[in-house]
Design a protein that fits this description.
Elements: E1 18-21, E2 24-31, E3 36-42, E4 47-51, E5 56-70, E6 73-78, E7 82-85, E8 91-106
Antiparallel strand pairs: 1-2, 2-3, 3-8, 4-8, 5-6, 5-7, 5-8
């Protein structure tokens, strides 16, 4: 994977996606030690398994439709919606309509690079 840590300019077309699950492709975009952006492409029916991590995460729904679980709440979200997942809260999703999620992490996810 091409490393883009601390790069001023990160062009999406230069980043190769990697399989992050059945029907999910992840692209790690610009990041520093304290902040990271990650684009996730989901096929309809793909699952982002329930999980948690010690990072605060904001997700922006670029396109598509998803059923998200955050803690004990479940909601359907669509393009333009945002979700806040504070550190260590369990969360996951099911893609209802093919789409893209943009995740922003604080601090960066070392396990992604």
């Amino acid at each position: 994977m091409k490393t883009v840590k601390d790069e001023k300019w990160v062009f999406n077309s230069d980043i190769d996606g990697e399989q992050a699950g059945e029907g999910v492709v992840r692209k790690v975009l610009a990041y520093t030690d304290g902040l990271m952006t990650v684009e996730n492409h989901f096929e309809k029916g793909a699952v982002g398994a329930l999980h948690h991590h010690p990072h605060t995460q904001i997700t922006y729904v670029v396109s598509g439709s998803f059923e998200f679980t955050i803690g004990d709440e479940k909601k359907i979200v669509n393009a333009g919606d945002t979700l806040l997942k504070k550190d260590s809260i369990e969360h996951g999703c099911v893609c209802l309509e093919k789409g893209i999620l943009l995740d922003i992490f604080n601090p960066m996810r070392e396990d992604f690079v």
